[in-house]
Amino acid sequence: MKILTTPRMERCIGCNSCSLACARLVHKRLSWLAAGIRIMSTGGLSTGFEARSCMACDPAPCAEACPTGAYSQRKGGGVIVKKSLCIHCGDCAHACPVDAIYLDNIGQPYVCIHCGRCVPFCPHDCLEMKGFSKETSAEDSEAVIL
After folding, report:
1. Residues 53, 7: contact at Cβ < 8 Å?
2. pTM over 0.85, yes/no
3. Nearest by Cα to 95 from 106, 84, 75, 111
4. Percent of the chain scored above 90 by pLDDT?
5. 25-57: pLDDT as tens digits
6. Which of 128, 139, 141 is nearest to 4 (CA)?
7. Which run of H or E residues covers position 141?
8. What domains lie within the chain, and their CATH numbers?
9. CB pairs under 8 A, 24+ apart, for 101-105?
10. What pLDDT sits at residue 135?
């Protein structure tokens, strides 16, 4: 299984190319509100940026909180999203321990599905897809996921 990681965020200039790529290519919308990855300032331009995306929890609290089964556990961590089952209740977003599920103005949730389509759009190579297995130690998994 591969997950999206952000190993070189010190290079990030906050251009949001990854967010726009996610919104356009994955969700077929042209809005930062429709992206599964968000770039945020860590306190100003001189302090850098952080990428906020799904941490590939296993078990995923958002999937457990979803009353309709729109969010289901992905093998190895993260979730599979079936938008047709979503009732826009927001329970998934409230259950996420890292605030990585974003609700747009009508309550449609957006989460990183670890597809990697954003990676080639980062001009400074801040993002990458990495293999991850359950055999990896807790310390290693924190390094991979962050």
Report:
1. no
2. no
3. 111
4. 75
5. 999 998 888 999 999 998 876 779 999 999 999
6. 128
7. helix 138-145
8. 1-53+112-132 (3.30.70.20), 57-98 (3.30.70.20)
9. 101/54, 101/62, 102/33, 102/35, 102/36, 102/38, 104/31, 104/33, 104/34, 105/33
10. 52
